[in-house]
Amino acid sequence: MVFSEVLGMDSCTIEGDSQVMVKILPKFLVQPGSDVDDERNNKETSTSFPQKKKQKKNTDTIPFILTVTSKSPNTSYSSSSSSSASFDELPRETWWENVDLYKCDGFWYGLPHLVAAMEAQSSFKARDDDVLLASSMKTGTTWLKALIPCIMDPYARLLNDDDDGYQDPLIQSHPNELIPSLEIQIFAENSTYDVSGMPSPRLFRTHLPYTKLPESIKSPGNSKIVYITRNPKDTFVSLWHFFNSIRTVEQGPLPLIQMFDKFCNGVHAFGPFHNHVLEYWNESVKRPENILFLKYEELKRDPRGEVKKLALFLGRPFGKEEEVDKVLWRCSFDRLKSLEVNRHGVDTWAGFPKTAYFRLGVVGDWKNSLTEEMKERLDQITSKKMEGSELDL
């Protein structure tokens, strides 16, 4: 049968026989059984998720059978369905080493994220006051993961850390834990998140392109989307450093030139980058009341003005300048990087060290890694892609 008929997809139709087995990556994009995966399994990790987690199956030896059954409290599939699908017919590319990406509807995904996106499209029901933080990878998202919860929390903008009874969530939790991801956490295999039981306003995040979002999020009047992007040269360099953080000394860094070629060709997780940006940009022009489009460079240049704009968009305007000061201080890069909760351990859902989310936090670091020839190549691609959009990256 056609998988799209079950999952509510429009154009990524995949034919498949029953009980076709495919290997799912148990951590973000790391192949099970690899040196990186073995090293992670030996590390001691901790989490402060309020949700109680069930014991996960050992996916190193058990292949994932893609059947349309309920894998988390957030899916609405009938457990009696035995429909399954093979991804063999989708275009596939090796992104780096043993990490394969699959192309669906013009974008590249790790297999677990593609499966999760399909489930989200079929099952997620948005509320009017939901807030979704969207971005391509490594565009300043971590900063927003701290800013948005602080803006939504009336105490974070008024009280000091030493005030009786107040506990700053940023001291207790990594920003990733404050805003769960649709494709990495909520609709992941063996997820224990129950979004229907979350109090409003619910905060979510995603790296999915706009066209892959659940329809209920895109419906007029439903939800608010905050999108952040960044200069593509800085985005690539940050992405390269980010994935190097999970490599051993013996492995060494990923080959820069090969990774750069992949990025320029659009072959990277949730890529192509420029298409991702343009989808959200075009929708923000059509529906500015529902989609706020931010640039990391502008947030760095004028943090006060951009945070005020963000708060107004979220329906939480600041009453006093002191409130703005408090939020900017709580979410400053130096403070977040120094907090104990962000200095140790591993993000148990994505598998990256928590420190990897706080490397430099600057604009223009690409100059330390890219040659003039590489700069010119990516600038030309960006200029051509953005032509006619009135968007300047």
Kindly describe this structure.
- The chain is an alpha/beta fold and 393 residues long.
- It has helices at 3-7, 35-41, 111-123, 141-152, 169-172, 175-178, 182-186, 215-218, 232-244, 256-264, 273-286, 296-301, 303-313, 321-330, 333-338, 372-386, and strands at residues 21-22, 64-65, 92-96, 99-104, 107-109, 131-135, 203-206, 224-229, 291-295.
- Strands 7-6-8-9 form a 4-stranded parallel sheet, sandwiched between helices. Strands 3-4-5 form a 3-stranded antiparallel sheet. Strands 1-2 form a two-stranded antiparallel sheet.
- A hairpin with a 2-residue loop joins β4 (99-104) and β5.
- It starts with a helix and ends in a 7-residue tail after the last helix.
Please describe the structure with a list of short key phrases separated by commas or semicolons:
393 residues, alpha/beta, 3-stranded antiparallel beta sheet, 16 helices, 10% strand
Helix-strand layout with pairing:
Elements: H1 3-7, E1 21-22, H2 35-41, E2 64-65, E3 92-96, E4 99-104, E5 107-109, H3 111-123, E6 131-135, H4 141-152, H5 169-172, H6 175-178, H7 182-186, E7 203-206, H8 215-218, E8 224-229, H9 232-244, H10 256-264, H11 273-286, E9 291-295, H12 296-301, H13 303-313, H14 321-330, H15 333-338, H16 372-386
Parallel strand pairs: 6-7, 6-8, 8-9
Antiparallel strand pairs: 1-2, 3-4, 4-5
